[in-house]
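Forwarding the complex inputs:
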Amino acid sequence: MVTDQFGIVGLLSFIRAAMDGTMVPAIIPGIDLTTLGLNLNSPENLYSTFQSPWAEAPCRPQDIDFHVPAEYITNIYIRFKLAPIKFFRYGEDLLFFLFYMSGGDVLQLAVAAELYNRDWRYHKEERTWMTRAPGMEPIVKTNSYERGTYYFFDAVKWRKVAREFHLEYDKLEERPTLPSFLSQNMNNPNQ
Amino acid sequence: FDDPPGLHEKTENLLIEWVNMYHSPQAGRDRTKAFFSFVQYMHQQGILKTDDLISRFFRLCTEMCVDLCYRALVEQNQSPTLIRAKCFHTLDAFVRLIALLVKHSGDSGNTVTKINLLNKILGIITGVLMQDHEVRGTEFQQLPYHRLFIMLFIELNAPEPILESINMQVLIAFCSVFMFLRPAKAPGFAYAWLELLSHRVFIGRLLALTPQQRGWGMYAQLLINLFRFLSPFLRNAELQKPTHLLYKGTLRVLLVLLHDFPEFLCDYYYAFCDVVPPNCIQMRNLILSAFPRKMRLPDPFTANLKVDSLPDITVEPRILPNYVQMIQPASFKKDLDSYLQTRAPITFLSELRSSLQQNPEPNSHLHYNIPLINALVLYVGTQAISSIQAKGQVTSMGTIAPSSHVDIFQYLAVNLDTEGRYLVLTAIANQLRYPNSHTHYFSCCMLYLFAQANNEQIQEQITRVLLERVIVNRPHPWGLLITFIEMIKNPTYKFWNHEFVHCAPEVEKMMEGVAQSCL
Amino acid sequence: PLVKDHLYQLTMLDAAYQHLPHPSDSERLRHYLPRCPFPTPSYYYQL
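Prediction (whole assembly, three chains):
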């Protein structure tokens, strides 16, 4: 057999080095390209929402600039008249919109904290927001779980849906921890 | 050197004035009026008097904007968002000034003046970048230059009639700059460079919107520069984090191209494979997996797939650039053509090996002229296809040999050392792509070499070249799969009888695993 | 082994790696809702 790097033995030693971690497996067996954050089955072009070679996700809709008539660019005229962003003023619909549109942004965290303040809880496994249905106490309640009827926010249908559920408390997210520059604003509704 | 006295202060004042105008609501309401009054002011300050003064003005503005960014970037108590906002506050205003000056330079119909000005300014920014890169070294920051280039590109690609009339020249200007600032020349700018190349507006303009694919060649050249830069680091296969990130970013860009512009990869695969290192198997597979969007590929795992009767198998693919020119020197090409036609001179084959070898670079193990090998293999194959068609025949295992063409492949397989043989077989495997006449011919060729080998090492290396491409993560080119499946499935080749298949438990397990997936 | 030129390129690349471009570097300034990337929990929706 060929004993140098150009035969089967050469390939084998390459593979062994990748498997036992002495070599970064970027070359062999290579990278699973489906994990690079691109929807390779998309019927639409990918380049038009391509965020960056280092990003794990495509652009959010709000990040894509379009050439619009100059008259539409009004921020420069009204920016000092705009109300400051105060989440306690906003309705649930807007909060959910901001939550789902701001993945990976501090805004998502801030909105999550406000939803928590309004007794919504994020279920980490179901990956959805839920709250107790008003006036409906749990049928079963223990230290670790309860069972009853709850409202779930369905992000696909974009509405609250009531259903019975077995809720384990450890599956709920605790109060979101905000960075200090944000928590000062959040804790004082008068600011 | 030797800026006229007072020019620095004048430039600074003008820049401050413009930045304030750019950000003021009053200017926003009537931008053109504000711009023209500013140009008048520039005239009054004498800035537009001579070409030299204009150049110095832009150079000083660029340096001031860059200095401001460096000062902002060292501030420790501010968030990255605020720091960037501070930098962009001035940079974006400067970009707008440049864009307006370009747009309104000369008469509306005079494109030459506009492009000359743009080229001058881009050249100045590039010069400032290179000097900064050299002087600051590892302290160099990409941010200000990245912002200048991308925002200027976006501004100059706005859907306005004046800009549409100069769009092609604008694209050429930017591509020239990016060619100059290629990673090998400005490695400290490499990440920003790839970000620029992969920006949706840049890709859209060069690959989608410019008619008749006139942007494709420039984009291909830029990618070739990227592969060339990565090559020495990828050859070592032990990727440090910075190169690993750049490599992963390159794969992302290639995936976008594979999805959105597969025909682009089809056309330029040859030029790319010339510069992608031989051990970058997945990246090469990605390029070779491209096929025209209108084509429907038959499932390579179909039992009894009759490749010979596929209609696309007789269609010649387009290949850019002209690879025949790579066969040098001219005397070698002449001898090659003579041998292909007449099998003379007899000495051609024995001299072939030395023609393909080269003196290795210092610290390089590469003893062969890889671009020449690639060109030779493809040229001989395409000549063979023409010869078969001229006889009114179709390419098959029965018609590719005997021929002077296969003689050459067989000679190289038998007489080169393991490295040379590996490179020749790699060059053949690089033609195994989507259904076309080249894929079919080289698939037959590879299988013929396997069947006719007088030496098990040849069969081992053919297996090695195909197997390494099959075992990496997807995608896999269609032609690769059908060739490998045929080799392991067809009892003619007695694949499973060979010693190298069973030489180690991992190899046996790997072969069986691959065979199970394929069969 | 890498030659001198390539070693220099690697050094510069390593330095550039310490301050990578950010997607907002290619976007117009947003004054009202600027992009402010932050590591949110993995169980939140990211897309």
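The two ends of chain C are 43 Å apart (CA to CA).
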